[in-house]
Automatic annotation (TrEMBL), chains A, B, C, D:
Name assigned to this protein: Glutaminase
Catalytic reaction annotation: L-glutamine + H2O = L-glutamate + NH4(+)
Stretches of the chain forming a coiled coil according to its record: none
UniProt xrefs under Pfam families: Glutaminase
Amino acid sequence: MTSIPAILDEIRQKMACAEDRGKAASYIPELASADLQKFAISVCLPNGEQWSTGDSRTPFSIQSVSKVFTLAIALGRYGESLWRRVGREPTTKAFNSSQELEVRKGIPANPFVNAGAIVTTDMVLKGASPAEALGGILQFLRVAASEEDIHINRDIAASEKMTGHKNWALAHLLSAYGNLDHSCELTLGTYFHQCAIEMSCEELARSGRFLAGFGKKDDLVRQSSVKRINALMLTCGHYNGSGEFAYRVGIPAKSGVGGAILAIVPGKASIAVWSPGLDEYGNSLLGTAALEELSNRMEWSVFS
Amino acid sequence: MTSIPAILDEIRQKMACAEDRGKAASYIPELASADLQKFAISVCLPNGEQWSTGDSRTPFSIQSVSKVFTLAIALGRYGESLWRRVGREPTTKAFNSSQELEVRKGIPANPFVNAGAIVTTDMVLKGASPAEALGGILQFLRVAASEEDIHINRDIAASEKMTGHKNWALAHLLSAYGNLDHSCELTLGTYFHQCAIEMSCEELARSGRFLAGFGKKDDLVRQSSVKRINALMLTCGHYNGSGEFAYRVGIPAKSGVGGAILAIVPGKASIAVWSPGLDEYGNSLLGTAALEELSNRMEWSVFS
Amino acid sequence: MTSIPAILDEIRQKMACAEDRGKAASYIPELASADLQKFAISVCLPNGEQWSTGDSRTPFSIQSVSKVFTLAIALGRYGESLWRRVGREPTTKAFNSSQELEVRKGIPANPFVNAGAIVTTDMVLKGASPAEALGGILQFLRVAASEEDIHINRDIAASEKMTGHKNWALAHLLSAYGNLDHSCELTLGTYFHQCAIEMSCEELARSGRFLAGFGKKDDLVRQSSVKRINALMLTCGHYNGSGEFAYRVGIPAKSGVGGAILAIVPGKASIAVWSPGLDEYGNSLLGTAALEELSNRMEWSVFS
Amino acid sequence: MTSIPAILDEIRQKMACAEDRGKAASYIPELASADLQKFAISVCLPNGEQWSTGDSRTPFSIQSVSKVFTLAIALGRYGESLWRRVGREPTTKAFNSSQELEVRKGIPANPFVNAGAIVTTDMVLKGASPAEALGGILQFLRVAASEEDIHINRDIAASEKMTGHKNWALAHLLSAYGNLDHSCELTLGTYFHQCAIEMSCEELARSGRFLAGFGKKDDLVRQSSVKRINALMLTCGHYNGSGEFAYRVGIPAKSGVGGAILAIVPGKASIAVWSPGLDEYGNSLLGTAALEELSNRMEWSVFS
């Protein structure tokens, strides 16, 4: 069997040759200007080893991958009562759709569509100022990643706030249905900042170790939460492309519009990939291809 | 650690005491008259052992669990080209909804909603008479279950044919969009018979071994198909209750309106449960509860 | 003021020059082969005069225009209790959509979408054989049009029966929700025959006189029904193009996929136009343009 | 034939006895505290006569009735190009639904659902400050009603702004699709003020004379606009209750959540009714009943 570093390198080379590299998110200038040639992958193993290749130390905006950590914090704090305010079902609509939220009378389908993550952010905000809540999320990530140097890119947060009309629409709909405890401004302000957290691929891979069942897990969440977060990542982590991802890759994972994907092989690996070009669902095109290849070669699918 | 037989027995006793036992499917008399006290569970292990408890030899109508086997046969025959005619995404609508089929212009969301299974049945019918196609499905099951005595309950098939107006509507919609190669009568006739296959819990558990990676697997499907079928069972196997099931139980599984669930722990176990009372989504209420308990106690979730 | 015959002739000439003539319905050969050059218009006035131009004696399939007469018969027989089984709201979906029927749990939006007309046909069938029911509809038309020679084109009815999968889907959905008293075969068989009634433009214009408040009205329906049928034609008569038609033409009217439109100016005129080319909603393209011109020049809009 | 004043009085007495008086709008305190006993009706005739009964000089918030006047102004200024930004089709969704706006990619169904009226307000704002735009709308109303004393209730406007989360969601969705030229704050601020215009029933009836074809019509809109606005009122003026209203009353009309309805009988009458209790669609319950009675007794339906 080929070694992990060799496999990662082969994948990196293969991805470097890919002609269709997807399209960068275009809604804010900071993401639109992304270099589509960038690619990185990093893998953490239970024995403490970490293998990486490509631009693995370049920071990027983790965007929706942050939803995993906010969910972990909210689950830790509210337990099962969290599900009174958010569902846990996959959705057939886009990640920022208002339609379903109205049909579901203000209860988002799951915590990984934007509306659902706005609700978990609102829950984490309870009893805290936005600065404190964001501090708590950053602290969670620093412990998870064993890395102090994780920050928020305030330019990106500001751009999101200016242009995120669909998110503003979602927040106002949530308020209309009584599913926000704070003002739209406060909750969305926090949400935009959390999405603008910057990490490198190496840091992101380390921050997922607690979900794979190793690393600093005891400090972070209960084991019963771990398997539930992983289940949600598998069924809902790629929006309306989740079924496709499960079929092809077979690993719980969460994507972000900045081009990152965090993927968890329970008991075996925490993986981060990054490539800014997106597919039609808003998930990293080459990141998905790289994970498919890695899953196949390492036989890491949870389904076989 | 408690032994599997002991755990199964404890689960059986616990389920015997359950007050809310769900409601039997009411659309045909054969299912409506089901005894809600019935309960069985059976587990096959890689070492060839099989443990069962409850009414594990009582035959029941496997209904939608049959969709797994038809998909396996169709995947074997058509490979990835199958997905030109069926999607692989979860759905937010009921298992027999026409709405989504119209929105998706005749391409069913996945092979486990009724419309999708009607299409895979239509594919299996290609070049065969209904009798031959059904013979092939039965033969597949007999090999999988190592059991010659598996048959179709023709009364149930006839009842379905009479009253299955929603299925007739789906078949005509599929035809309207050009996604049936045979007449509605021929394809639906075959579909109704396949749903009316009768098996016991013991037989059903054995018939899933090829998906768990042991048993007669080599004769049946490629390993690459196995993990894909399991992925689809996890994301779509319980209709619009699939996210909930993944969250609570964490095992790929397919339910049937007769009260059966086939659940696969890759590499570890093939499980069948049966209890005729259904929850609001049409999945066995106590069957789900039993699998949740078993998954927790055996630590069989694929997500931890 | 120019005389009506002169205006009609000018309209006919204008329409003869139109380059975009729409597309004939393509789902059955009898309609697909229609000659797009055909055009006719006929107007009946309260004083008994009738003015026509173009191919005004050529018979065509009235298709959905028949829904007006079935509704008139059903309203006469059931009165307001009819509305327990059909709504009276416009729809945003296509005329043969199943989606809305499922959302509305088997109660069609209005009697002019296909599902609604299948229900009114089912009501007219009550206590009669299909031959008797069809005889009743034909008799109603013969009295209304003062014309004995009105018949059903049985080739068209047979073609519809073979290929009308969307209508079969609608009928089965209606049955699934308990909103058909007869079998799908019986009700749809009658429905397809009623749509295949053939009339000329001159006959069709005369058959609408009872809705305009003159002609053989006393024998046919109550005055209170007349205004209600007209209201439904205005809000729902052109399917999801009804708002557009009301805006441009401003007259209650019902279109058919054969290219006919029956338009009613209460107290002033009963108008039929025919041109087989359809617009995107399935309404006659030049027929609509001709009615818009006529309504403007005669100041016949009910809204000014 | 009974005289109009006598008929109006009989209607008022009948409505006074009604037990089911509907429910006042509850979303802002100013509307929630409405006195359900209030009732007024006023009728303007072509000969200049005006007949009124009940609380016909009590001012109320005209709310969505204002959409008619904003549309009239926008149509006058933009002509048919207005329809690039708004549709003219009835809708099956509630007046403040976001679902349809997303399906229609930011083009509201018609100018009488909230999203559509927000767009026409945005168009009227072009090249003007909010104060100037509101001044223009007020001036239009003052001329139409021949009444200088028409004002905005700023408490109501402020309440709407605080609590109108669904409207904020709509405005942000419109912005997301590029269908607002101004900021959400600016356009919605103007929209909320326009809805908070206060008029009495007598004033409102007079302000509709230009749509009925008499009064100060020449100063206000073209005749071609009049019939189009009336057509839109008939097909869309009562939201998803428009078909029902057309069926029962048969007159173009626009309702407001404050309990007012403006109804136009082309060439014959401009009518205003007011009763604050609403039906399930958000239309005045007794106002509708009163108009039905009046339409029947005066034979004012445009459909007969």
